[in-house]
Q: What sequence folds into this?
DNA sequence: GTTCTAACCTATTCAGTTC
DNA sequence: GAACTGAATAGGTTAGAAC
């Protein structure tokens, strides 16, 4: 009304016009009936708006058309009008018709515009006031930590969702493997099963017993952190006030800082909180647990990987995290691969170590130097004597070093990073295998085939050679490996990005890409690439490798029967995917399921090639060969290299040993 | 009970403004 | 030019009144 009526130009007129078009329809339905009354009032009070509203339609339309359509410009509410509207809104966010009319009188806007303004205002307030989602909160606060939290979340959730089928299989897989050697290892059980908090809790408890003392300090910190998030959530919920979420968060953060020392009890309370809050708190807790350990004390504690994720919600952060951490580090022995499968295999790990390296690498990758890390990861099998296993790893590392040295260290610290590393390791393994196979081929056949394979491997992308996939893959991989720095880096990048976004749809995209690639070419190279990306998505897959350092298991799983065999790969993959997804939309869930399946399939394609062919050969031989390799490796890394190089069959055997060993262990050996 | 009207909500688009 | 904000629209739902 007031001055703004400046109607002249546009406001008033504009106000009238806009309604004309948009409102015309509305007018038909709603206003016309009421028009009589409103008209009178409006006409009296507001000529501009009333006129437009009332219905001097022709005039209005003309003006509207002229004003709006020409440029389609929109008028912005004048400051005065806005002030009036704000006051009115504060007084009553949902004014009835009478109130609106009253407002219209005081403003240069017509009733419809006022109504829309209130609608938009309410909508805007809702957006601002609605409580932040845990993810949002995490994002705001922790930023980088989000990933971890997300992972934790994903894992945590996935555990719930996937518990059904996957968990058991995973457990069965992991347990048998772990049990013989590492029954005492809470970590082994826990890692494979991010599934339930209960399991995690149990593992955490066991681990806690061992590392209780050390955990105390860190636990306190973790509790503090956890507490803070929960508190924050509560506060935010309380504050649903119109304060902007940011302001609230800031306030919360400040409060946290002040209250850094909260009782662990609060943590529980936070968990107990109903609804979103509790959910948030839970997330926070897990996330914190994850983050805290890594961030707080143990930057170096590679072992934390597995452990951290597991402890998630249920377990007290401190206890969970620490117990977990210690076992992996201490346990990290190379045996793990062979252990479960065959009693001999346990010792064999040295041979298996190469394959296991991949697995190990992921596990340890986060933790420490590549070589050392890998070995420890392999060592998971507590039972396995670390000393013996180490040599094979070194051998493996020899082939790997370039790759491992570069990228691995950085991410090892975090779960995602694990995944990435795991992938890398997987790739490395392939590379290793590739190198081996390539060498073997070159040496043995040395013929055009090897050269061709190499060429194809170099060309990688469309390599048609699937049949000889393992070899070719290896060749490609091997070639890539040296380059691997390059090729792998990109992969890593993908993984990283995906990691960052685990929760987000990105994972889906990655999966899709993977699927497509697989479906199309199923080329070895493509597969490897896919794997790396999947690594992101496939925290699942990564998990399997990471936890047990059994990427191959994952491979085998797809083959063995994505669903049927409850072995890790599927369960872990599905469960995790599911778990992560569960949070997300069901649609994602589905996609993720698919993707996992595809991924599995992809891997299966890759792995199967290795495992299947080789298995058949090796199963009979595997043990013996493995022992030989292991022994040789143990004896002298150089000898191992010699094996790799000189022995064509041995090189193949390696692949077989690694893949087949893992597969056989996971499948045949186990059962 | 059905239909109509008015109001509301959510999601989205698009223009305007700011950096 | 990108990002943000706000105005406007479209589709849908619900409650009340009229038939």
A:
């Amino acid at each position: 009304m007031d001055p703004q009526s400046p109607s002249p130009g546009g406001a008033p007129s504009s106000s009238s016009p806009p309604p004309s078009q948009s409102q015309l329809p509305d007018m038909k339905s709603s206003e016309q009936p009421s028009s009589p009354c409103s008209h009178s009032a409006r006409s009296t009070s507001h000529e501009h708006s009333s006129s437009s509203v009332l219905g001097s339609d022709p005039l209005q339309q003309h003006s509207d058309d002229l004003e709006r359509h020409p440029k389609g410009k929109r008028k912005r509410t004048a400051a005065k009008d806005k002030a009036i509207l704000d006051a009115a809104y504060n007084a009553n966010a949902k004014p009835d018709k009478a109130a609106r009319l009253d407002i219209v009188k005081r403003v240069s806007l017509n009733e419809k515009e006022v109504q829309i303004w209130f609608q938009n205002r309410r909508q805007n307030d809702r957006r601002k006031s609605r409580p932040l989602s845990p993810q949002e909160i995490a994002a705001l606060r922790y930023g980088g930590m989000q990933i971890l939290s997300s992972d934790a979340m994903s894992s945590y959730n996935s555990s719930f969702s996937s518990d059904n089928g996957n968990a058991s299989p995973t457990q069965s897989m992991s347990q048998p493997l772990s049990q013989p050697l590492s029954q005492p290892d809470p970590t082994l059980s826990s890692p494979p099963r991010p599934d339930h908090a209960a399991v995690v809790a149990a593992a955490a408890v066991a681990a806690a017993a061992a590392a209780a003392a050390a955990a105390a300090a860190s636990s306190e910190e973790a509790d503090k952190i956890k507490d803070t998030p929960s508190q924050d959530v509560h506060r935010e919920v309380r504050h649903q006030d119109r304060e902007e979420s940011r302001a609230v968060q800031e306030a919360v953060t400040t409060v946290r800082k002040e209250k850094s020392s909260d009782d662990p009890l609060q943590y529980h309370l936070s968990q107990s909180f109903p609804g979103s809050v509790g959910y948030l708190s839970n997330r926070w807790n897990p996330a914190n647990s994850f983050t805290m350990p890594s961030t707080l004390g143990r930057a170096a504690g590679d072992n934390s990987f597995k452990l951290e994720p597991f402890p998630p919600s249920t377990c007290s952060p401190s206890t969970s995290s620490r117990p977990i951490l210690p076992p992996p580090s201490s346990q990290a022995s190379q045996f793990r691969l062979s252990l479960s499968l065959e009693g001999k295999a346990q010792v064999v790990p040295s041979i298996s170590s190469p394959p296991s390296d991949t697995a190990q690498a992921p596990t340890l990758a986060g933790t420490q130097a590549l070589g050392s890390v890998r070995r420890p990861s392999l060592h998971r099998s507590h039972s396995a004597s670390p000393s013996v296993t180490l040599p094979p790893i070194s051998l493996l590392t020899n082939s790997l070093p370039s790759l491992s040295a570069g990228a691995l260290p950085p991410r090892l610290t975090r779960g995602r990073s694990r995944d990435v590393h795991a992938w890398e390791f997987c790739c490395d393994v392939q590379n290793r295998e590739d190198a081996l196979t390539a060498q073997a081929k070159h040496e043995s056949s040395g013929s055009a085939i090897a050269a061709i394979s190499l060429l194809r491997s170099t060309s990688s992308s469309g390599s048609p050679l699937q049949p000889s996939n393992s070899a070719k893959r290896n060749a490609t991989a091997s070639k890539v490996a040296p380059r691997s720095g390059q090729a792998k880096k990109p992969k890593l990048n993908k993984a990283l990005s995906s990691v960052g976004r685990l929760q987000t749809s990105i994972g889906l995209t990655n999966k899709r890409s993977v699927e497509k690639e697989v479906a199309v070419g199923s080329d070895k190279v493509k597969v490897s690439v896919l794997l790396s990306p999947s690594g992101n998505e496939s925290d699942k897959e990564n998990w399997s490798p990471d936890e047990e350092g059994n990427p191959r298991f994952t491979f085998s799983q797809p083959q063995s029967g994505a669903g049927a065999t409850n072995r890790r790969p599927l369960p872990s993959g599905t469960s995790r995917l599911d778990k992560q997804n569960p949070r997300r939309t069901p649609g994602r869930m589905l996609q993720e399921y698919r993707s996992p399946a595809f991924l599995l399939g992809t891997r299966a394609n890759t792995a199967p090639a290795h495992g299947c062919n080789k298995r058949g050969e090796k199963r009979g031989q595997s043990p013996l060969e493995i022992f030989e390799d292991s022994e040789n490796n143990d004896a002298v890394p150089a000898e191992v290299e010699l094996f790799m190089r000189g022995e064509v069959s041995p090189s193949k055997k390696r692949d077989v040993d690694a893949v087949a060993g893992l597969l056989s262990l996971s499948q045949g050996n186990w059962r």
In short: Residues 18, 21-22, 74-77, 113, 116-117, 119-121, 124 of chain A lie near DNA strand C (CB under 10 Å from a C1').
